[in-house]
Design goal:
Elements: H1 8-24, E1 29-31, H2 38-50, E2 54-57, E3 60-61, H3 74-88, E4 94-100, H4 108-120, E5 125-129, H5 134-143, H6 150-156, E6 164-167
Helix pairs in contact: 1-2, 2-3, 3-4
């Protein structure tokens, strides 16, 4: 279903429904995950700006353990993230979050690009998933064998700090 966000019309409709639902419940500030599709991320920032909402979001980076039409390369993720940061971060109420989807979907190369982005844009947030279920934790530790735990993957790449968010941390 997420791959459908590559279609600009579908992305516009989905973002509209999402932001309408937030405002209907009185929510004017949100940190959200987007997709790997740059256009959908642009649409989220554009509509949030029009509505004067605060949004913390960023292009989702994933380069493995996902369907072929959803993954992207670390270099494309880096290039598109730089463009989005420079266009949207701190414009109006927008804040940008460097977003590796989760450590099982991020190669060492993708995480290194996230680290590079955080060094180049230190006031950006980092938004990712962490410790959602025991099988995911095992998978992450199998992939990142040099890390003592799930959080250690993000620590290794300099992503943990005051502006770090780890969603779904049920099994921390």
């Amino acid at each position: 279903m997420e791959a459908r966000y590559s279609d600009p019309d579908y992305a516009r409709e989905g973002v509209t429904r999402f932001l309408d639902a937030l405002l209907a419940s009185g929510t004017t500030t949100c940190q959200a995950f987007t997709t790997t599709h740059k256009g959908a991320t642009e649409e989220l920032f554009r509509q949030a700006s029009e509505r004067k909402m605060r949004i913390i979001a960023g292009l989702t980076g994933i380069d493995r353990n996902a369907p072929a039409d959803y993954v992207d390369t670390p270099d494309n993720f880096y290039r598109d993230s730089v463009e989005l940061i420079e266009r949207f971060h701190r414009q109006g109420r927008n804040l940008y979050a460097i977003t590796p989807r989760f450590a099982a979907g991020a190669s060492a190369e993708l995480l290194a690009r996230c680290e590079q982005l955080k060094k180049e844009y230190p006031d950006c947030w980092v938004n990712t998933h962490i410790s959602e279920n025991p099988s995911e934790i095992r998978m992450v530790l199998d992939i990142h064998q040099d890390c003592p735990d799930y959080l250690g993957v993000y620590e290794k790449y300099g992503l943990v700090g005051p502006k770090f968010s780890g969603g779904h941390g049920v099994y921390l």
